[in-house]
Amino acid sequence: MEVVLFEAGADDFVVKPVDPPRFLLRIKAVLRRRSSDPFADIL
C-alpha cells in the first residue's frame, strides 16, 4: 500500500488509528520543509 501511495504522488501519509503526537510532528515537519522554500504557495 505504501508503495502505491508514493507512486501516486504522495509525499507522506497517515495510517489509522492516528497517534496525535506523531501526527503533529508530521505536520510540523511539512511546515518546516515548506518554509524553507521562499517561493512556496501559502497553505
What does this structure look like?
This protein has 43 residues and is mainly alpha-helical. The protein has one domain. The protein is 51% helix and 0% strand. The chain has two helices and no strands. The radius of gyration is 12 Å and the shape is flat. The N and C termini lie far apart (27 Å).
User: How does the major sheet shape up?
Assistant: none
Helix content: 40-55%
Runs in which pLDDT lies below 50 for 5 or more consecutive residues are none
Give the terminus-to-terminus CA distance. 27 Å
Strand content: under 5%
Structural class comes to mainly alpha
* N to C succession of SSEs: HH
Kindly report the average pLDDT value.
82
Quick summary:
The protein is mainly alpha-helical and 43 residues long.
Provide tags for this entry.
43 residues; mainly alpha; 2 helices; 51% helix; flat
List the helices and strands and how they pair.
Elements: H1 2-7, H2 20-35
